[in-house]
Structures are given as C-alpha cells and as structure tokens.
Amino acid sequence: MRGLSSSEHEAVERAGSEQMLEQVLAWAAVNSGSRNLAGLERMAELLADAFAALPGALRLEDPQPVEAVNSDGKSVKIKHGRHLHLSVRPTAPVQLLLTGHMDTVFGADHSFQQARWLENGVLNGPGVADMKGGLAVMLAALKAVERSPGADRLGYEIVINSDEEVGSLGSASLLSQSAMGKRAALTYEPAALPDGTLAGARPGSGNFAIVIRGRSAHAGRNPEDGRNALLAAADLALRLDRLKREGLSVNPSRIEGGSPSNVVPDLAILRVNLRPRTPQIEELAKREIDEAVAAVASGRDVEIEVSGGFARPPKPLTPEAEELFKLVKQAGADLGQEIGWQPSGGVCDGNNIAACGVPVVDTMGVRGGKIHSAEEYLITESLAERASLSALTILRLMREAA
Ligand SMILES: [Zn+2]
Fold it and tell me: By CB distance 3.0 to 4.6 Å, which of 185, 211, 400, 402 could disulfide with 73?
C-alpha cells in the first residue's frame, strides 16, 4: 500500500478486518424478495441492529404509495417494505450519500434460498453479491471511517430501500430527498465484472402499461360495430418497435386481454420497456410515444390510457462523475487494486441519484457474478478488499474539507 497516510492505513486495515462474511451469511438466510413483506421487515430489523453501530438517527421509513395496472386494466395498490434511513452529522462540512437495497429478486416461493460454498472463497447464495455483501462492505467502511481522526468533518445519509429490484417506486422520493446537497454518492451494487470493474454510464429505463379500451361486438353478426382492442395493442406495439434507434431500445414485452373467439375484444393491456441512453433521447421518446398513442387512438377509434414512465433517468458520465471515478481509481491504485469502469446496459438507484445532480459511483459493492440467477456468487476475499477501497474513498472525500 503506497501513498497512504498513517491514519488512512489504519482505517483501511480496520475496514478490511470487520466480520463481514458472518453478516452476509446471516442476511442471505432471510428471504427478502421484493414482494415478501414479512421477510423484508425481518431484514430491515436485522439491518437496523447492525447499522446501529454507527452514530446518528436511524429510522425505518414507510414506503411511498405505489400503483400498478393489473391484467384487468385496473389500477391496484402495490405494497412495499420499509426503508432504512440513517442521518449522521447533517451539519458537517462534507456530506455524502450511501445507498443500497435490502430486497432481492428471489421470492419466498423460489427454489434458491440457501447459501453454499462452490469452492473455497466462492459463496453461492441469494443476494450474497446483489447486494447483501455490498451492505456489509458499506457498514465496515463507515465503522472504520468513524474511528478515524477528523470524522467529525463528515456527515452522511444512508438509504437502504426495500424495492430496488422492482424499480424503487416506493423509495424514489426518499432517495432524491437524501441526495439533496450531497458532495457525492456511493451505491453498493456489485462490481460490473468479477474483476472489480465499475459500471460507468447507464441508460435510463421506463416501464409503461398502456390500457386500450375498444368496443365489443359479435364476431359474426355485427363485427363492424366492434373496436378491436387487441389489434390496436398489436398496432401500437409495432409502432413503438419502430422507435428503436442508436441510443434507444424498445421492448414490447406483453399483451394481455382478449375475448372468446366469437366476440370482438374490447380490452387489451400492452406492456413495454424503453431504455434511452441520454435525457435528450428520453424526451424525444416521450413525445413519440404520445404521437403513436394518438395515431392508434384516432385511427382505430379506441381509448388509450398510458401509465408508468421513465422511473430510471439516463446516467451519462458527466465530468463531475468522472472526477469521482478517478478518485476511486486512485484509492484503488494506492491499495494495489486496479479499478476501471465501463458502460453498463443495466439500471439501478445510481440512475436516480445522478439525476439529482450528485456524482455517484454505484458499483462499490463486492466482486461476484451471475446475479439475478440461482448461480449468483460472491468472491469472499472481495469483502475486505472493497471495504478498504470504500473506507479510503470516503476518507479522501472527507479530507477535501480540511
Ligand atoms: Zn442490486
């Protein structure tokens, strides 16, 4: 470890020697699928206990109300778990945001529930990389920083939400409030590659549920009186598909609705995901969706209601973000870790934080891979490695105010 001050050296050592693996094993044993409210509550309590090791005011916050369109085209309320929020020294000169999520993509009924060793140092388990390992890394780094001289110059907020894997609709406002006025943000998604490479630019993502109401009629007696909602949905899906271009992907993913064969169907729900690479493309896509909807509504004499939207704004690599990446890279170099970054096609809370104008590195978590599958794994030596990297990054951000 070259170029470290003695206090940096001590903090890095402390961060790396925290008992992270035990935490990951205990947390991975609790199913916290985004829809498992009881499991999420248990997980929130475990995290609240663990994060109580940090100073500040810790609260479990109720989620924002969220609605979704069901397969009958009706708006229904979706329940989410509570989010952990911790605020530490809100008047200190350097203010950071640290975020993670407690939910996983594996529901209570999924077959993947238990951690097991694939080989020495490689742990397979639900959420071990995405991101219970990352949560342990975040906590270890902050504990180490708290014991460093000058920690009183650092203030921070932590948000650990319960709904990241389903789009963070119930935590978006908590995230953006907590991002306000922050010098930088660190989010503990696993590294983009097993070698530790970070995710740089990310596209945005929008999910839409488009409800189309036509008019039913007898398929033989008076089909001309009908307005076929299914055909309108198919027409709209094809029009939206034609919006695809460099910097915009479009995926019509489902059409629900229909009727018996002797009835003209009067209801269809089209679901579609769009991923724009820049805010400009997002704006253009919004206008083009409106135009396509208007054309189908008038051309086929149906009513169309669009719900949903671009809940994850695009995250281009701004100059401010690039500075933060360079700071992490230098910290890595001083620890003997080579840290690079590359664009990613995925989205996460880093998108929402970046949209608040706060530079963010959102893959500060562990090294591992095959996330969102039953082969998800964590390379356990990366716990200490990434905790040291985070501690040093935070210390250097803190010293900017010295
Ligand atoms: Zn994740």
Answer: 211
Distance from residue 165's CA to the centre of ligand 1 (Å): 7
How many angstroms from the chain centroid is the CA of residue 28?
Answer: 18
Q: Separation of 73 CA from ligand 1 center, angstroms?
A: 30
Distance of CA 21 to the CA centre of its chain: 23
pLDDT per residue, tens digit, the chain (402 aa), is 678 999 999 999 999 999 999 999 999 999 999 999 999 999 999 999 999 999 999 999 999 999 999 999 999 999 999 999 999 999 999 999 999 999 999 999 999 999 999 999 999 999 999 999 999 999 999 999 999 999 999 999 999 999 999 999 999 999 999 999 999 999 999 999 999 999 999 999 999 999 999 999 999 999 999 999 999 999 999 999 999 999 999 999 999 999 999 999 999 999 999 999 999 999 999 999 999 999 999 999 999 999 999 999 999 999 999 999 999 999 999 999 999 999 999 999 999 999 999 999 999 999 999 999 999 999 999 999 999 999 999 999 998 866
Distance 355 CA to ligand 1 centre (A): 18
CA of 164 to the centre of ligand 1 (A): 7
Cα 347 to Cα 55, 73, 240, 311: the distances in Å are 31, 27, 21, 10
Question: What is the spatial distance between Cα 235 and Cα 336, in angstroms, rounded to a whole number?
Answer: 56
Ligand 1 centroid, distance to 382 Cα (angstroms): 17
How many angstroms does the Cα of residue 345 sit away from the middle of ligand 1? 14
Q: How far apart are CA 80 and CA 69, in angstroms?
A: 16
Residues in the chain: 402
Q: How far is 349 from 311, CA to CA, in rounded Å?
A: 10
Protein residues placing their CB within 5 Å of the ion ligand 1: 130-131, 189
Residue with tokens 């995230």: 175
* Ligand 1: centre distance to CA 203 (Å): 16
Beta bridge partners of 207: 273, 309
> Rounded to two decimals, what is the model's pTM?
0.94
